[in-house]
Write a structure and sequence with these properties.
Blueprint lengths: L2 H8 L7 E6 L6 H15 L4 E5 L5 H5 L8 E3 L4 H10 L2 E7 L5 H6 L3 E6 L8 H11 L4 E4 L2 H11 L6 E3 L6 H4 L21 E6 L8 H14 L3 E6 L5 H13 L6 E3 L8 H8 L2 E4 L8 H8 L4 E4 L4 H4 L5 E4 L14 H5 L7 H13 L1 H8 L4 H5 L3 H13 L5
Length: about 400
């Protein structure tokens, strides 16, 4: 197929270019929220927007969330299908998320490419990291979701820092303002909690990098000092093997009765869940990009204990939070072969720091709540979906596109 000729003659003068969001697949995690918010935001600004998905897993579930099923395309790593759809829909901007399918070829056809670095690529070896950098040279714009992610990528790949702009994920304030609690969970008692319990919640999918097993060890130490500490685990299972290991650790733990799994509920209830049930939000993960859950906890005025990954560094000076060291030290040394080892450590190297942080926050919970409730309007506006959308549009089309 002569794509060069087709794209050269297929452009419609004066017609507003469409945007294609390119992903590999979905797992009902944070990426879906970001892609969905960008889809809605770009369309709200008058750009026809489509989601191009390489793999069919959970594709139907995501497609049903869109305004029109015809805005979704599974291209199955097929070049003809991919570029044919771009040509038909006048897609002249491709916004890639993890995926890099035909990126360099797309750029050669005059399609402007934007790439978002969503995480620290600890699973890449040095050759793969160099390959990713080379591929991204074709991009018109590159964004990292946090300064932590930018620093990691530029350090390991050698990409000049000037080529990467930090654009944090945004959250949907309107959805968080919904005051309807999760079905059947209107009160703390519905979760087996007492009103005077100190409730810690880890809102994240269950997989190795989220390190829920480490929180079991933390809870063992906390409940020795105060039996009123309770841990809520809220998230879908991404790695069944890790979930089985977690359940086995909990079953043998003296803190078993203080650890509660929250039944699945729609994300539209997240705001009220955080406000009604949670005293301290935590994300003690091994690696992170820009956690939507952290931003949601900030908006819902919940104090936080975080490990020094993802957007923790970006929010620690404005949010009511304590940031602790990670379980492994330098993230540049974290590799796929070592991550599972850290993930299954119940008594991790940073356990003492986490315990101290939770104790400190619990002893002055009223003060931390007051600090959490004092975020200024300017800070909150920077967390909103619209701020993210405007910054990406400016990257794609220039400041006038906002």
């Amino acid at each position: 197929m002569n794509w060069d000729r087709l794209f050269r003659h297929g452009r419609q003068k004066g017609e507003k270019p469409a945007i294609g969001l390119v992903v590999t697949g979905f797992d009902k995690g944070g990426l879906e929220q970001v892609v969905y918010n960008l889809y809605l935001g770009y369309r709200r600004h008058g750009y026809d927007t489509y989601v191009l998905c390489e793999k069919p897993e959970l594709a139907g579930w995501f497609a049903e969330q869109l305004e029109d099923l015809r805005h979704f395309r599974i291209f199955s790593a097929n070049e003809a299908d991919f570029f044919g759809f771009c040509l038909k829909k006048n897609i002249r901007q491709l916004h890639y998320h993890y995926n890099t399918f035909m990126m360099e070829r797309a750029a050669s056809l005059g399609i402007r490419c934007t790439y978002t670095i969503h995480n620290v690529y600890t699973w890449f070896n040095d050759a793969e990291m160099a390959e990713r950098r080379e591929c991204l040279e074709a991009c018109h714009g590159i964004a990292a979701v946090s300064s932590f992610v930018k620093d990691y990528f530029c350090t390991r790949s050698g990409m000049p820092e000037s080529r990467v702009e930090v654009i944090p994920n945004g959250v949907d304030f309107a959805e968080l303002d919904i005051t309807e609690p999760p079905p059947g969970l209107a009160t703390r008692a519905a979760l087996g909690l007492a009103e005077d319990d100190i409730v810690i919640a880890q809102v994240s999918s269950i997989n190795a990098v989220k390190h829920q097993i480490g929180m079991v060890g933390v809870m063992e130490q906390l409940t020795k000092q105060n039996p009123r500490f309770k841990l809520l685990l809220a998230g879908n299972v991404i790695e069944p093997d890790y979930n089985e290991a977690l359940l086995a650790v909990i079953e043998k733990s003296p803190a078993k009765s203080s650890i509660i799994f929250v039944p699945y509920f729609s994300h539209r209830h997240m705001g009220e869940f955080l406000r009604r049930h949670v005293d301290i939000f935590t994300l003690p993960t091994l690696q992170e990009g820009c956690s939507n859950a952290v931003l949601e906890a900030m908006y819902c005025q919940v104090p936080m204990v975080l490990t020094d990954v993802g957007n923790a560094r970006d929010v620690r000076d404005v949010a009511a939070c304590i940031v602790t060291p990670t379980a492994y030290g330098d993230v540049l040394k974290l590799r796929p072969q070592t991550t599972p080892e850290y993930a299954r450590q119940k008594d991790a190297a940073n356990q003492g720091a986490l315990v101290a942080a939770f104790m400190q926050m619990a002893e002055n919970l009223a003060g931390y709540r007051a600090q959490a409730g004092a975020l200024g309007a300017e800070v909150l506006a920077g967390l909103e979906t619209e701020a993210m959308v405007q910054r990406y549009l400016a990257m794609m089309f220039g400041p006038e596109a906002r």
